[in-house]
Each structure stands twice: as structure tokens, then as C-alpha cells.
Amino acid sequence: MDGRTVNPSDLGLRPDLCQALHAWNAEYDDSKLPFEAKDHDWLSRGKELLADVRAELRDANVIVTEPWWEEEPSDSPRIADDED
């Protein structure tokens, strides 16, 4: 992928994980982000989901671009195969 939004089911993720990702994303608003109200529960759930996605996509390098994931942002936001 090249930084575009993708449907989780297009990645071959488990249906329950796809549903959880959609539900988590539906709760988004600007107040959820750390530089606003710091919704720690929402961000913690997002980190759990990110870990689950990475576990499901073991052969892919899932890159985050936002600093609130407590990782260094990448210059190339995308999901890349390890072969790239």
C-alpha cells in the first residue's frame, strides 16, 4: 500500500479484528488525540489493535506516521512487504 486508507478486510485480517478496527476508528474525533484531550483509553485500544494487526500481518512491515503511537514516525506511510 502507499499510504492510502485501506479496508482491513482487504488485508486478510480476521473478521473480528476488522470489526474492532472499524469500531475504534468510528470513535475518532479531534479530542481523542494526545495534543487535545489525551483520551488515553482510546489510544491504548488503538495500540492494542496495532499490535494485533502486526501479529496478523507477520510478513508485512506496518508503518505508523503519527507520534502518539510512541514510535518514530516513518517518512513513507505505507504497509510494505518485507521484500521491498
Structural write-up:
By secondary structure, the chain is mainly alpha-helical. The chain has one domain (8-81). It has 2 helices and 2 strands. It has helices at residues 15-26, 40-56, and strands at 60-62, 79-81. It has a two-stranded antiparallel sheet with strand order 1-2. Helix 1 (15-26) runs antiparallel to helix 2 (40-56). The chain is globular, with a radius of gyration of 13 Å. The model is unreliable at 76-84 (pLDDT under 50).
Count of individual domains:
1
Estimate the mean pLDDT confidence: 78
Our count of helices gives 2
Structural class computed from helices and strand pairing: mainly alpha
Essential attributes:
two-stranded antiparallel ribbon; mainly alpha; 2 helices
Quick recap:
This protein is mainly alpha-helical. The protein has helices spanning 15-26, 40-56, and strands spanning 60-62, 79-81. It has a two-stranded antiparallel sheet.
Q: What topology emerges from the helices and strands here?
A:
Blueprint lengths: L14 H12 L13 H17 L3 E3 L16 E3 L3
Antiparallel strand pairs: 1-2
